[in-house]
Amino acid sequence: MVAGGEGGRVVLAGSLNALDSQRGAVDHDVAQAGLRGLVKTAAVDLAPHRIAVNGILAGPLRSQLPADRYDAVGEGALNPAGLIGEPADISRAALWLVDPENGFVTGSLVVVDGGQSALLPLP
After folding, report:
1. Residues 67, 53: Cα–Cα separation, whole Å
2. How far is CA 75 from CA 82, 83, 91, in A?
3. Quick one: how far is CA 12 from the chain centroid?
4. pLDDT tens-digit series, residues 6-33
5. Each residue of 45-61: pLDDT tens digit?
């Protein structure tokens, strides 16, 4: 993209673990923290070349959970929206980020989680 001189869009996909941790997931948490740093650093370094770099942080998606987990957690148990995300939810966010009209959006992490990250977990 730099050599081409035309600018462009980069979208990296990650999970909510880029923002918060969960028990027993140190490897995943560290990788997601690295993804967050990569988005920020690449956005700064590539901005002069008109290349926007952003990330999508997904909450639980139907395609990621084993089928028996849906019944165990219930649709409303994961987030305030009472839904389990669909892969298409992530696709729509990515399409928005790669839109050529969104050149001013760079270095951002778009959270697609049905409000899960806004919910304070109480015992």
Report:
1. 34
2. 5, 5, 21
3. 8
4. 999 999 999 988 888 888 889 989 999 9
5. 999 999 999 999 998 88
